[in-house]
Design goal:
2 domains, 3 strands, Arc Repressor Mutant, subunit A, about 150 residues, about 55% helix, three-stranded antiparallel β-sheet
Length: about 150
Amino acid sequence: MYQANELTHYDKCSVTRMMDIIRPKWTMEIILELLVSQTGSLAFSDFEKLIRGINPRILSTRLHALVRKGIIEKFIPDPSTPKKVRYRLSDKGLEFTNIFLHMRSWAIKYLDVDEQCKNNRCRHMMVIQSKLLDLKLPQAMMEYIGSH
């Protein structure tokens, strides 16, 4: 039974463990860009173009951490050109779609956000909706996404 004077062991706390993954600056942007990637993967230079203001050293650090945590996978599409490394979401990383959609829903409800974002007209939501339609999700899920 829980006792009021017990301290939380944050190193084992589920919320803290999740925040350790998404807290570092640019991490969610990296995951988001992989979620909406038309090809399912991105090269280092793609991230630099898509995420304005990200420092290459920080990008490298974040990518390495996400690979280490199993959120993204690093791969070489053509072994004859080993320097052409790409990144894609792992199965674990693909589940960030749900997290992203819930965070977005909360932000639209409580924060001042761009009108295009509110109306699902931002690049990210248009791609996510398109991908979800391709997956033939139940109508109830599509209505939920459309209303949030």
